[in-house]
Amino acid sequence: MSMLVRLRPIVHASPTVNGIHVRGWASSFTVTGGKGLWLVWLRVADALASGVPHDALGAPADAPPAVSKAVDLILDQLWEHDMLATVPDWGRDAPPEAIATWLESVAGNPQEVWDRLSTATISITGSATLVAAARRAITTLGLRVVTSPGEGLVLTSGNLAVAADCSSEVGFVVHPGSYEDVISDAKAVSRRLDVRPSQAPEVLAALIGSAAAHRLICAVGDLPDPSTEFIVHPTEPLPADVPQLGVLVARLDPLRAKYHPWFRDELPADPFHAFDLLADPELGAVPAPEAGDLPQVPAHLALSGTALGVGTTAEAARIDAVSRALGSGLDHTHALGMTLRLAVYQRSMAGLELSDADWSSDPVARRWWKALILRFGVPATIEVKRLAPHVVQAVIRDGDRVLSWAIEAEPADAVAFAALAATGVAQAGIEVAEPFHLNGAAPLPAPAETDWTTREWTWPADVRGREEELQAALARLVKP
Fold first, then answer.
1. What is the spatial distance between Cα 273 and Cα 261, in angstroms, rounded to a whole number?
2. How far lies 411's CA from each of 33, 37, 355, in Å?
3. How far apart are CA 305 and CA 292, in angstroms?
4. pLDDT tens, 46-62?
5. Cα distance between residue 471 and residue 474, in whole Å
6. Which of 95, 113, 236, 372 makes a 20 to 30 Å CA pair with 262?
7. Which residue, 152, 226, 225, is CA-closest to 190?
């Protein structure tokens, strides 16, 4: 079977003032060099639409040097952006035209994918409406299907499986995997979404059933899962041995569907990835943090359910709210820092009392202390004492009532966190059961590096850098 290089059917182009702009499935590029590039593109695209043998790619031998250079540049960009596919001259074994177009649009090697799919048998078990939708989607490919009645929806082929379920208002499709993994995921997601047995509306069942079929077909064909381009995490990518999972959640009124992050085992070490999972609005373990009607000046505030979060930025407030709702930190450093500080605070240790001069020259500490006593008029007093080298505790009171406290390595940081905590509570106007506490163990994104930023602008970004030394000192204080 001869092989040809074709332009992926999903690729389209438009002329620009002095070149062309080309768009594919997930990327695009622009080539500049004059209006004549559009005519070159039309010739190249026309030839590639029919298919060109690999050794025949390029401009004709008698083409002018400028045309040859333009053709080579366009072909290089098409390869670089994965807009070309090496495909068979399908002949008698061709899949249906629509399927061939789909494979040539998304598959690295359309022939290999079709070989996997055309020899596969898909087993579908589940409720009638979901099974019917999944079966319609799969038989469109001309694949073999075996169905049987059951609950929910489970599709299997070889050692791959996908599970889904649907109720009257919500449905989901978990990430492909082994039968045991997807059944476990489906049970957990069903509990999280409160999916209860009911007659699913046909439109929702059709969406869920066809989406489940799509995910299994992609897994069988070794194509990227549909969730790949939607589940994006803000920091470094996951290790190679840790799967990035997405669960499709669909709802009615209005009909909508979106992929949401999911994790099968313990939370990832990356605190921001963990935050995405914990605070996801559909599948999170705690309510997604929202600013709502809370005032956002001078501190930033957020609520995760009834848990108030306070920070110097909106993201810091969201992270604080989620950790309070969770009752733990977002990574090991955060959790250990919270635990050690609380253990020290609860022991009411004696220490060397410090004066205002030890912290009042710091602009951050002074800003939040003034916000509390001047802007919000709280008749507060503050006690700052050194408990040990690199351990300073600040406690803010209104009369006999403790409003907030903090323990940090430096006096200014301890005062700033304690004053920020008390300011946030006063600003929110919410009664809290316990003295409010903030600390520098919480993870925060690194601020942008510029030549004009000061500590006052980026605080508390620099505080976590002192956390290891502080935690070692705290551990010595609470050691039996």
1. 9
2. 62, 66, 10
3. 11
4. 999 888 988 888 888 88
5. 5
6. 113
7. 152
